[in-house]
Amino acid sequence: MPKIIRDGQIVEDAWIRVCADANQPDTQDSQAYLLPLHAWLEESAHPLRAPWLASDTELTDALAASLMQAPLIGIDFPDFNDGRGYTLARQLRTRYQYQGEIRALGDVLQDQLFYMQRVGFNAFALRADKDLQAALQALKPFSVCYQAASDQALPLFIQRAQGA
Amino acid sequence: MYQYDTYDQTLVNERVAQFKDQTQRYLAGDLSEDEYRPLRLQNGVYIQRHAPMLRVAIPYGMLSARQLRTLAHIATTYDKGYAHFTTRQNVQFNWIPLEKIPQVLDELAQVEMHAIQTSGNCIRNTTTDQFAGIAADEVADPRPWCELIRQWSTLHPEFAFLPRKFKIAVNGAKQDRAAVQVHDIGLELVQGAQGLAFKVWVGGGLGRTPLIADVICEALPWQHLITYLEAILRVYNQYGRRDNKYKARIKILVKALGVDTFRARVEQEWQELKDGPSTLTEQAVTYAARFFHEPARTQGVDTQAFEQARAQNKAFSRFVTNNVQAHKVSGYAAVTLSLKHPSHAPGDINTQQMTLVADLAESYSLGELRVSHNQNLVLADVRLDQLFELWQILDQHQLASPTVGTLQDIICCPGGDFCNLANAKSIPIAQAIQAKIDDLDYVYDLGPLDLNISGCMNACGHHHIGHIGILGVDKKGQEFYQISLGGRSGNQANIGKILGPSFAQEAIPEVIAKLLAVYVAQRHPEETFVDTYHRIGAKPFKEGVYA
């Protein structure tokens, strides 16, 4: 079974990602699938179906309302230089208060994990050729952060002023 | 100036360790060229013509004597004995081998410096007025705000992979000396109805598509600075074009949507962020401001000897007229050290000069100095009774060219001699013009003149906003130069217009001389070059050059 990083640990994972242009699995299929958003919306109540969002997804209130019932939400990085997924994750966590798993998919590399976990990703399906163990070690290269984010309630400038 | 506490120091140290590891993995072949590129860029490392180029941030232009000594040490130990100051308050080294760069970053970290986000598609070094805190026309000191922006933008998790680079400038004075209208975001401190506020400009920039920014908010109350910036960046991160890097800057998005639609999206995004945890408080601002308090200055400085020297010594008098800026405290002045001596490339400084300037900053100006976007250095707190003595030392070391603001004070990118992006050389053009028009009386007679040179359309030399702009272009493998006229920086920012067909390198000094002759023949009394141009238009200049 493939492995991913979830909540700071390497774990086996049963979810299989289905690409946008592939044949979509049968509803009766008891394998867990990550479906492209449009396909998932067709059977969003299915417990073994979860959506993945393309980086250019427009996150409207209506879409977010549907997503709240997803068992997990994948966000695709078509290229690690495409930073739109960071904003999507942050909006899901802070604006819509999504509590489930948010998983980074696609061109996911060790050196971006720190930023990803800060904006609310808690699971990472690294690119297949990458070393999970090394990535796990590099999850938090910084012990100090200036900004408020999913992992820090207040920006440092507020913390300092309160401590001063 | 700002001083690191354990948080800042820890972060910078951890950044050095991270980059050391990334560089080792790259050199070992574990990271591909493509994977390593944005990592090195966000640590200021470009691969250049001769060796990597390292760009070090000088946040909002403030530098201590101790830091300058470290830059000198790095130039001697790892480079060829000099450094280059840029148009965005950064300093560049051109000859440091890649495997030495983590070590250099380590040395920088020890004096509270770094190269974080000096390059790459992220929020760059925040810049400001080189006379911040001492200018008489100041609404408020921009530096505490710059520092807050520096912290907010440093390793911001959401905005590390933007569509393109992102530059923010802050101006606190009536006169804009930070070029806010040609930045991705320009912030101008204003007195609003409820106290201090920011006039927010967005979508300015030079480069391939030069545009003057639009005003997106007339008076943003200071409490909301960070959340509002975050809203702008979020809209840009989501909707900025990623399919074409030449159309990826925020200015293209603002133009495509129209400023009103863009503003509406920002406002919508801001509703969620406004009054949230990143809202600034009185305490947070006071905390940042305490690093920029008024220093102890001498009252009642005796200026009689200074006035006498100025009256008697012509060279000193020229220096005072051109390189000395009024200070808000009487008896003090800000002194611009020109890095435009004809013997050096514009913006370049050698190790001996750096060491000397560090000493002078300590002896004459509270141990601090500033870097200007005109690529000069500024000692901002010099007592007038010590100015003559200071000038004599500067003059001995080729740092007193009395030409600030004149034709000789050329802004110039490193160009084809160093830069991989350049189409053409720029330094030899600057030097040839300086040599051709070097009679100081004539230079002074020409009055204020911004001559800016870029070696390619990325416009690091800000040629679009020069009264005279020179752009290096490539014509079938040959270096040619296009002239534009009428550009302006500051409050009346304006993009210059291309005069006509481009010229060969050797023709440029003569072309400039002819343009100046047209101006001299046509000007009204006291009228500057750029004003004459805007009054009479391009035609007489075209005739003067192409006839």
From TrEMBL, chain A:
Entry-linked Pfam families? DUF934
- Domain of life here? Bacteria
Q: What is this protein called?
A: Uncharacterized conserved protein, DUF934 family
Automatic annotation (TrEMBL), chain B:
SUPFAM superfamilies (UniProt xref) = Nitrite and sulphite reductase 4Fe-4S domain-like (SSF56014), Nitrite/Sulfite reductase N-terminal domain-like (SSF55124)
Instruction: Name all Nitrite/Sulfite reductase ferredoxin-like domain ranges.
Output: 53-110, 346-396
Cross-referenced Pfam families = NIR_SIR, NIR_SIR_ferr
Going by the entry's taxonomy, the superkingdom of the source organism is recorded as Bacteria
Residues in Nitrite/sulphite reductase 4Fe-4S domain copies: 119-272, 409-545
Q: Which UniProt keywords are present, listed alphabetically?
A: 4Fe-4S, Heme, Iron, Iron-sulfur, Metal-binding, Oxidoreductase
Q: Indicate whether 4Fe-4S appears among the record's keywords.
A: yes
Please name the InterPro entries in this protein's record: NIR_SIR_4Fe-4S (IPR051329), NiRdtase/SiRdtase_haem-b_fer (IPR005117), Nit/Sulf_reduc_fer-like_dom_sf (IPR036136), NO2/SO3_Rdtase_4Fe4S_dom (IPR006067), NO2/SO3_Rdtase_4Fe4S_sf (IPR045854)
GO molecular function terms listed in the Swiss-Prot or TrEMBL record? 4 iron, 4 sulfur cluster binding; heme binding; metal ion binding; oxidoreductase activity
Q: Which residues form a coiled coil?
A: none
Task: Name the PANTHER family for this protein.
Answer: BLR3264 PROTEIN, FERREDOXIN--NITRITE REDUCTASE, CHLOROPLASTIC
Record's protein name: Sulfite reductase (NADPH) hemoprotein beta-component
Which organism was this protein described from?
Allopseudospirillum japonicum
Q: What is the lineage of its organism?
A: Bacteria, Pseudomonadati, Pseudomonadota, Gammaproteobacteria, Oceanospirillales
